[in-house]
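[SOLVED] Need 3D model of a two-part complex

Original post:
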Amino acid sequence: MELISPTEIAKEKVQAVQDYSLIAGRSIANLFRVPRYFADMVYQADLIGFGSLPIVVLTGLSIGAELALNSANTLQRFGSLSLIGQLVSVGMVRELGPIITGLMVAGRNASGMASELGSMIVTEQIDAMRALGTDPMKKLVTPRVVSTVFMLFFLTIISDLLGLFGGSVISTLLYGLDWHQYWSSAWQILVFQDVFMGLVKPVIFGFVIATVGCYYGMTARGGTQGVGRATTQAVVASSVLILVVDLLVTKLLMSIFAYR
Amino acid sequence: MAAPPTTIEKQVPAAQESSSVALAFEDVFLAFGDNQVLNGISFRLAKGETKAIFGVAGAGKSTILKLALGLLKPDSGHIHVLGEDVTQMREQDLFELRRRIGMVFQESALFDSLTVRENVAFRLLEEGTVSEEEADAPVREALSFVELENTVDLFPSELSGGMRRRVAIARAIITHPEIILYDSPTGGLDPVTSTTIIQLIVKQRDVYKTSSLMVTHRLQDAFIMATHYFDRKTNQMQPLPPGMRGEVPMGFLILRDGKIIFDGDAHELAQTRDEYIREYISV
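Solution:
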């Protein structure tokens, strides 16, 4: 196996960060340049948004139900079972809804973007597009970024609501909690900061998922093996970045809002 | 029989020189890591001329086409295409210039998720000057040029290698570009299909007077192009009449170790005393 010097590795990493930053920056800058490819955005929104709906519905429901199931036991010991709605509500809206939806969409779509664009790179279709006078960044990357940001926002809202619903089903059927009590406590505990935090995160996660997926696709090298590698790296990198960014955003917003 | 095309004027007055040149490389260097691919190459492609580029695998033939399109940037030197220095242009400005150039890629590079119709119409629709309905007529015209009118609704995966290459030619010519770059257009094809492709390239050269660079490994293809012209009446490629050899605008360029070792016409190539070239053309 060929040994690579640490300097070369460092150079490669810096180059990768630079290339990613360029793709991410241009994906936003292209929003202010014509042509804007609205048809491609709608097509991608359908692919990313509606395509991810079944998996988001399933995970939202099950995470809410599991959260209720696991916390009910502890709350019961302290005689505070009535707080279950509050716990599920804050947990889902602030943290679990955005992060679980983000991870699901990353697994499904970052890989899809990396493999699709990677295949186009290795079969010279991206070069052909440039040769035909079309900017692949505008035609392929920007629509994916816009659609992912837009659709992840709404998918997260759906996931939050379904998580609350899953929690309510467990609370009422297994623990005999009143349905109205669950929903009113879940509703009343939420403040602007919670909802704001829960809705800012999917916007950032959507940007991370799409730009990472497109970056690995657009930089894929080495035939079908390279495309496979790019696909795996896109899922791993976007998932890890979501977790890291989540931590940073949560801490930042808690500081800004002087959270209780 | 229609008259064969006249040869390209080699001696042009200085004032007309720049306007008669479609593409010019000036002392172009390019390396990939430690591999020096192009080592100071210079040549000119006159308007209306077709130049075939030869060289062993890895000699930098396809790289020359990508440099001409601005898909790659040289380490040093200048490349003038249709009066613009592509080495000094931003990517955004290059998109405008590329719309005046057609490119046929080695493996066709058709968009595999689009039909033949959408592939061929791609450039027209991207320019936004015509609707999908309006694009139908030029698409059919371009496909009839390559004799593939019946494939409009097929996907590239449903076509043979030769048909894909012909669709790629149709996609390249639909806007009647001023220059066409062919990257191994007959590579890997059977002799009959290769001849069909060469006939299309000769037709484009003699009917539309398009300047072109053609990368190829097949010397016989270039010699056919140098000794034939396209007859509009019979809609066939015909051999040049005796005494008119060298009267078509066809040049040869041979690369070796990143340098151009031959730049001339078929007659000069046949007369060369360079041992490497003689061995190359005799293989």
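Edit: The interface with chain A takes residues 66, 69, 71, 91-92, 95-96, 98-99, 101, 103, 105-107, 109-112, 122-123, 126-128, 171 of chain B (CB under 8 Å).
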